[in-house]
Specification:
Elements: H1 3-6, H2 13-29, E1 33-38, H3 40-50, E2 56-59, E3 68-72, E4 82-88, H4 98-108, E5 115-121, E6 124-130, H5 131-140, E7 143-144, E8 147-148, E9 152-154, E10 163-170, H6 175-183, H7 187-195, E11 199-201, E12 204-205, E13 218-221, E14 225-234, E15 241-248
Antiparallel strand pairs: 1-3, 2-3, 4-6, 4-9, 5-6, 7-8, 10-15, 11-12, 11-13, 13-14, 14-15
Length: 249
């Protein structure tokens, strides 16, 4: 990839070099190439970069998955690329959430790029991973916090998202305006959070207060929660913007 193309994807140069290597291996050796798991912002960049230059698709285990891998080529069944793991635990004695799972993964020294979506559901933990590390996780991933766990391979499972929906009215779709409306604080307070690196958009830290959000963007505000902009409508009379917000619960 030449430097001229790089200019259009500033900040993603290393990512796209990895994608170039995958494409090279596919085109020169005729075998499917599978990337790490990536968040939505990186997936969108990859999609724009590759365009229709080769045969590829994204897969995360289920339709609504957040983190997905890039699969170049169509000779491999998707189920041969990823594994879904499940572990049971007793919710009466243990309270676990996604942060606990992420912390335990880091403590194991696992490359987070090999880990897809993970979540807690009905006293079960589900986790998607690259096939190549599935057996290692089964043998070594035995504790999350103070909770003992025992993972096993299961059929692909779909995460069910639950939301609380509410509307907010803002003057613009600037990040500081939307964050202020969600946390019910002044724009100055929201700017402080953004400048401190406490706000992610589509799982990427954004520190530009004037960043313009769009429908389907996912906002994560540290110690507050995760939100999805479901819809954006403009009030013709007042000129105000009405956002339909889904809060993940």
């Amino acid at each position: 990839m030449n430097n001229e193309i790089f200019q259009h994807f500033h900040g993603y140069e290393l990512l796209l070099k990895k994608i170039d290597n995958l494409v090279f291996n596919y085109q020169n050796y005729g075998r499917n190439a599978v990337s790490d798991f990536y968040n939505p912002d990186a997936l969108e960049v990859i999609k724009r970069y590759l365009s229709d230059s080769c045969d590829y698709h994204f897969f995360g285990g289920y339709m609504q998955s957040v983190r997905k891998v890039l699969i170049i080529g169509n000779k491999t069944n998707d189920s041969e690329v990823l594994t879904c793991l499940e572990a049971k635990f007793n919710q009466r004695f243990n309270v676990l959430d996604n942060r606990d799972i992420k912390g335990a993964v880091y403590n194991l020294g696992i490359d987070i790029g090999k880990i897809g979506d993970y979540w807690v559901e009905n006293e079960k933990i589900f986790l998607y991973c690259h096939n190549e590390i599935a057996d290692y996780l089964i043998d070594n991933f035995k504790q999350i916090g103070k909770c003992n766990v025992d993972f096993r391979k299961v059929e692909f499972h779909t995460q069910t998202f639950k939301f609380d929906n509410f509307n907010v009215t803002v003057n613009s779709t600037r990040l500081d305006s939307i964050v202020g409306a969600i946390i019910r604080k002044s724009r100055e307070k929201s700017k402080e959070r953004i400048n401190a690196g406490l706000v992610n958009v589509n799982f990427r830290q954004i520190e530009q207060c004037d960043y313009l959000c769009k429908a389907e963007d996912i906002l994560s505000i540290k110690k507050v929660g995760r939100y999805r902009i479901k819809d954006i409508q403009k009030n013709i009379k007042s000129g105000k913007i009405i956002l339909s917000i889904d809060k993940y619960i």
